[in-house]
Design a protein that fits this description.
3 helices
């Protein structure tokens, strides 16, 4: 089974919705790190101080305005693996370990012997 790099974008923020989005993303990181198929979790964020104590690789967003496609491409090149997933914190599904296992099994079926 290929090892997977997960790219998660969290724009941060101090308002209630932003804090809730970041809290959900942190819960997902905690769940993903338990899956053996996940080798690296990269969190790109404008507020890295909110993520310092989490088991992930932090990528601080550049200051000011930036192009999402260019930023995404840069991170894909830097953390290239055989498989990658991208989730934005607002779109991250929260799932239990059992649900996560079935997700990975469907996404990366075992290769058939040749």
């Amino acid at each position: 089974m290929p090892k997977t790099t997960v790219l998660l974008f969290d724009r941060g923020g101090r308002d209630l919705v932003s804090r809730a989005r970041t809290a959900c993303a942190k819960a997902v990181v905690e769940s993903l790190r338990k899956l053996p198929e996940v080798s690296t979790i990269v969190v790109a964020t404008a507020e890295p101080q909110e993520w310092r104590d989490f088991p992930c690789v932090l990528e601080e967003d550049p200051p000011g305005n930036w192009h999402f496609g260019a930023r995404f491409g840069e991170l894909i090149e830097r953390y290239r693996q055989s498989a990658s997933f991208i989730w934005q914190a607002a779109q991250v599904p929260f799932f239990r370990r059992r649900t996560g296992k079935s997700f990975w099994a469907r996404s990366f079926p075992s290769p058939t012997p040749s």
